[in-house]
């Protein structure tokens, strides 16, 4: 056996051994969402939850007691004890904390939005590139089971309509509604449309906060696709719905109910067992068929954190990369700037 072949096998064995090792991970910021990061990371088999750091000691104490994990008295001491960190602080601290982690060569999972400004996001991505660490962003709706239910369909939407409305709460208001809520849908739209953003029209209002609370954006892509997104954080009821229209297919997703529906035009008879609605007689054999693809039941947060751990082990790639987070932020900032220009 040649030396090259032996080295190849050693390398493969090493890669396999790496996948068996647990990733030591800590959580920075254990408020509303951070507590769920702790909960899942304490159960994911490839992860070894090392501990938590929150600037509020009450949160540290309550979460450490609940999940039997260690409290670190400084961010740096947590960073030095981990291979990877999950950053779940308010958005304005993401950039500074992520930079500190990456400078110590630690992988980072950053909750959405990746940062407040584009220059901060660029800095994070540049540092990560230089040190070879993974940056994943918490655009959790990309792992919503109702969206993943469409995996077996070829989606090429020409028009997308999205609504994300939520009752008012002070959490998240440190950033405008576009960076808090709309950015989820911007990320989904950018993932669905395989074209560059061409033009954006946007408008919005400040109602409860000094920032924008209701926003609407119409994004036109170079290939002509249009996405019309509405977000509000002062609605009576929660709504999270997406409709996408394409040649001979229309899909609706209710992210809250976990309901996905597809209407497709088929020639000749629809597949057996599907409700087939014939068009009028002049349409020949064309029919509209209705399908309700099965929506799996799993926790998207658990899935994205498992995806992060597996990506660190080299088994897969992050479903939402740092650059995806940066692209969604770029469009969100453009929309927000357009709105505030009109407001003043
Ligand atoms: P939160 O206010 O409930 O919790 C934030 C926690 O961070 C608090 O316990 C606070 O004490 C702590 N903290 C603040 N500054 C810190 C610092 N410098 N170092 C360490 N700890 C610090 O906020 P939240 O609702 O949990 O949101 C946190 C992040 O998660 C935000 O970026 C938000 O946009 C994001 N988020 C994402 C989703 C999603 O759907 N993916 C949903 C909610 C929130």
Give an overview of the whole structure.
The protein is α/β, with parallel strands linked by helices and 344 residues long. The chain contains ten helices and 15 strands. The protein has helices at 3-20, 34-41, 57-67, 75-80, 94-103, 118-131, 145-148, 177-192, 300-312, 322-343, and strands spanning 23-28, 47-53, 70-71, 84-87, 107-111, 135-138, 159-165, 197-205, 214-221, 226-232, 239-246, 249-254, 259-266, 275-278, 287-291. A nine-stranded mixed sheet has the order 8-9-10-7-11-12-13-15-14. α2 (34-41) links the parallel β1 (23-28) and β2. α2 crosses α9, α5 (94-103) packs parallel to α6 (118-131) and α8 packs across α10. It starts with a helix and ends with a helix. Bound molecules: nicotinamide-adenine-dinucleotide. Nicotinamide-adenine-dinucleotide is lined by residues 28-34, 53-56, 59, 88-91, 93, 111-112, 138, 140, 171-172. Residues 28-34, 53-56, 59, 88-91, 93, 111-112, 138, 140, 171-172 line the site of nicotinamide-adenine-dinucleotide (NAD).
Summary tags:
344 residues, alpha/beta, 9-stranded mixed sheet, 6-stranded parallel sheet, binds nicotinamide-adenine-dinucleotide
Terminal Cα span: 74 Å
Elements, N to C (H/E): HEHEHEHEHEHEHEHEEEEEEEEHH
Helix count from the secondary structure assignment: 10
Structure classification: alpha/beta
Radius of gyration computed on alpha carbons: 22 Å
- Contiguous uncertain segments of 5+ residues: none
Instruction: Specify the biggest β-sheet.
Output: 9 strands, mixed
Strand order of the largest sheet: 8-9-10-7-11-12-13-15-14
Number of strands: 15
Q: Ions, cofactors, ligands: which are bound?
A: nicotinamide-adenine-dinucleotide
What's the average pLDDT?
93
